[in-house]
Amino acid sequence: MPQGQPNLLLLSNSTAPGRAYLEHARDAILQVLDGRRSLVFVPFALADHDGYTDAVRRALEPLGVAVRGAHEGTPRDLVADAEAVFVGGGNTFRLVKAIHDLGLLDVVRARVAEGMPYLGSSAGTNVATPTLRTTNDMPIVAPPSFETFGLVPFQINPHYLDPDPSSTHQGETREERITQFLEENDVPVLGMREGTWLRVSDGVMRLDGVSAGGRVFCRGSEPVEVPSGTDVTWLVERVGSFDVGG
C-alpha cells in the first residue's frame, strides 16, 4: 500500500444473527490483511482485556492470523511493530481515554500512513473518525480529549437504527441525534446499519456488507440512502469543519 493511502476495514458490528463472532466479515478481513499473518488487537473498549483478546483469537486463528493483545506488552511498541491492528468495540469513551493515556494516537496514525491495515469494529470504527462525538455510548469515563485517529475525515455512526414509527420510546431517534450534531458541526455523518462496513483502499471508500447499507447525513440537506456496494469517496469533498454552530 503506497504511503498516504490508508488500508481500512471499518465494521459497524462484530456479530451477525446466526453467525459466529466476525464470521459475517471473514472475507473482508482477509482482503484487508492481504496475506499478513498476524495482528495486534486493541481491547481497551472493554474491561476484560484477556477475555476479549481470546475471543478475537478464536475467530481469527483458524484463518491463519495470529493475534496478540495490545495489553500483553507495551501497547505503543506492539502497535509500532504490528503487521496490522484491530481495534475492538465496546465503550468508546473508555477506548478513547486508553488511546490518549497510552500514547497511541500518533503511532497508529503513522503506521496507517505507511500502509498498515487498520480494522475497527463499533467503537473501533468510531475512533477511526476525527472525534468520538457521533458515538452511541454513555460517557462512563472522561477522556482528556474527544480527538480520535482521524483516519477518515468525516464521522461515522455505527449500529445505525432507522426511526421506528411504531416505537413508544420518548427519547431522540438516532436521526435526531445526528441532526443535533450537524447543528453544531458541518461534517458529514455516515450512519452504518448492522452488518455493513466501510472499506478504504487505494483512495476509494466503499460501503459494503451483508445488510441494507446505510444513510449519509449532511448539514442543510435531507439524509441520503446508501445501498451496500456504493462508492462513498465523495464524502471527502463534503467535509467542512467542527464547532461552527447553528
CATH architecture: 3-Layer(aba) Sandwich
**H and E order:** EHEHEHEHHEHEHEEEEEE
Globular, elongated, flat, extended or rod-shaped: what is the shape?
globular
CATH class: Alpha Beta
- Let me know the largest β-sheet: 8 strands, mixed
Q: What is the CATH topology?
A: Rossmann fold
CATH superfamily: Class I glutamine amidotransferase (GATase) domain
Mean of residue pLDDT? 94
Over the alpha carbons, how many angstroms does the gyration radius reach? 17 Å
Distance between the termini: 40 Å
State the share of residues found in helices, binned by percent.
Answer: 10-25%
The helix-and-strand class reads: alpha/beta
What fraction of the residues are assigned to beta strands by DSSP?
Answer: 15-25%
Query: Tally the helices: what do you get?
Result: 7
